[in-house]
Specification:
single chain, about 130 residues, alpha+beta, 2 helices
Length: about 130
C-alpha cells in the first residue's frame, strides 16, 4: 500500500492544518493513538477525541468541515504510519498517579477516623497509620 493512499486511523501519523474563522492557520503533526495512551503534549491524539473522529478515514489532501470554537476547517496534508518507537507509557503513568492519590486518600480517611472515633472500649490511636 502506498503511503499517499493511507487513511487516518489509530496507528497513523497525520500532518494537518487547522484553519480558524479569521483564516489563521495552525499546523500540527499528531499520531492517532488509543485513548488509554493518549497524551496531546507528546503528540498522541486519542482516537475518541472530536478532532480524531472528524479526520478518521480522511486521506492526504482532504478538507474536513470542523466547527469547534473558532476553528472552521481541517486540511489533511499527509497520512503516514506512526513510528513503532512511540512512548505508550502514558496510561501506566496515569495509573501510578491515580494509585498514589487513592492511597493518600485512604490514609487521610483512616487518620480522620482514628482521631475522631471513640467508644466505651476506647479509641483508635493513629500512631501506626502515620507510616502508611
Amino acid at each position: 500500500m502506498q503511503e499517499e493512499s493511507l487513511r487516518v486511523r489509530v496507528g497513523r501519523r497525520v500532518e494537518i492544518v487547522l484553519i480558524h474563522a479569521n483564516d489563521e492557520e495552525e499546523s500540527l503533526t499528531l499520531d492517532i493513538a488509543p485513548d488509554a495512551v493518549a497524551n496531546f503534549e507528546q503528540g498522541l491524539l486519542g482516537a475518541s477525541t472530536p478532532l480524531a473522529k472528524a479526520i478518521t478515514g480522511a486521506r492526504g489532501g482532504d478538507v474536513i468541515d470542523y466547527r469547534v470554537g473558532d476553528l472552521r476547517t481541517v486540511r489533511v496534508i499527509a497520512v503516514t504510519r506512526s513510528p513503532s518507537d512511540l512512548d505508550h507509557s502514558a496510561s501506566q503513568r496515569r495509573q501510578q498517579v491515580i494509585d498514589k492519590a487513592v492511597s493518600e486518600s485512604d490514609r487521610t480517611n483512616a487518620l480522620n477516623f482514628a482521631s475522631s472515633f471513640s467508644s466505651k472500649w476506647g479509641g483508635y490511636e493513629p500512631e501506626g497509620i502515620e507510616e502508611w
